[in-house]
Amino acid sequence: MTQADTINAPTAGKTEHVDVLIVGAGISGIGSAYHLQDQAPGKSYAILEKYETFGGTWHMHTYPGVRSDSDLYTFGYRFKPWTSAPIASAEEIKKYMAEVISENNIDKHIRYRHEITAASWSSRDKQWTVTVTNLAKGETFQMTANFLWMCQGYYKHSQGYTPEWPGMDQYKGRIVHPQTWPKDLDYTGKKVLVIGSGATAATLVPAMAADCEHVTILQRSPTYFIPGRNVNELADTLRQLEIDEEWIHEIVRRKVLFDGQAVTDMAFQYPDMVKDALLDGIKPLLPEGYDMKHFTPKYRPWQQRIAFVPEGDLFAGIKSGKASMVTDEIETFTATGVRTKDGTVIDADIIVTATGFHLSVLGDIPFDLDGKPLNWADTVTYRGMMFTGVPNLAWVFGYFRASWTLRVDIMGDFITRLFKHMDAKGVHSVTPQLRPEDADMPIGAWMDPDNFNPNYLMRSQHLMPKSGDKQEWKHDQNYTLEKDLLPAVNLEDGCLVYE
Asked: Taking the model in full, what pTM does it have?
């Protein structure tokens, strides 16, 4: 596939118009493009991608061992069977995406190295005007679109989140963040300290441990993990029976979703039982008598994401002595490492801050409505995808407790159904609006902390749109509910205003 700096770029000085402008060529953007051209084939569209190729997270993340923490039978699209091991590397995911792009001729719609720097809605013209910079040529131009389909993810790719600790300027070694992994970093034979817990740390440590002298994980608070073999026995059995791959994909997908929802429901109803089961699952993989405080979070299971550890590789490193865990807070950095609040000194040649990322609200693009700057925190979400007072725009925001991509598929169905409904009505704009019966509805944060509370989200809740307590005005992170609810939504229930 050719990934030129520009594809089908407009002639300088002319304003190109498309029916739908998709922002981002990551897992969300490519899936949305497929559904658009499959379910609304009459719509013209373009995809603008800031980077030099497709993939989003799977292109930008280059740290050792980078892999999915969701199984690819559900993280993969419903329309494209996954045929390999459930947990996949970034390279395997990009190969899968490349096949989707090639098989469906999506590549001709993608413009790489094109960044939106502003977006303005005109009520008079019923369309968006976006200012675009061709980063390869350094040229800026404008495009117009009837609808913006925002698929740029929810965090900043350019810079990860690293807290400011005392004494960081004293440290003589190298500090790196997984999100901007240096190509020249050589950790062979080095002492490495990984600060943070969760899926990134659980991926990094096994990948680095064999080459390092030693890897220490320093975490302020533990994370729940699920170890398991990186196979799907049901899929393998169905293949032995020579079942068609499309059927295998759908059957296994449904089984994984069924099992996942059962665990989620139990985590809410019987949190102590689930907690004990999770801890019992990793004890046999650790040294005998290991202090389980390092794997016992203070929060309820599924208040934060549970990381899958394929083949238990993280625990194998600990059992072998190549990796170790410290659970404490940092008091200060030193010239040779860090000292924790309980006085533990950890020397390290390299410190990796696997401490999360910065939330990005709709790509941090400046938006305005008829010249008035748009503050997303002043809006209320419509079903976690559109926003009150904002016409002709949808943001793909996926699931935390299930695969992100599941929502790409069902939003693709919903948005294309909305397009057909608008065409049938002969209208050009659609805007979510609270109804009279919603006037006294309690309005709160995008995500209830008791429901889901990762640090990156809690740090930036004030930037996010708000949620109500009615189903129409929230995103409750429940795929099992939404997969049946969204197809049945009445598009004339008063929540959407057409013009």
From this structure: 0.93
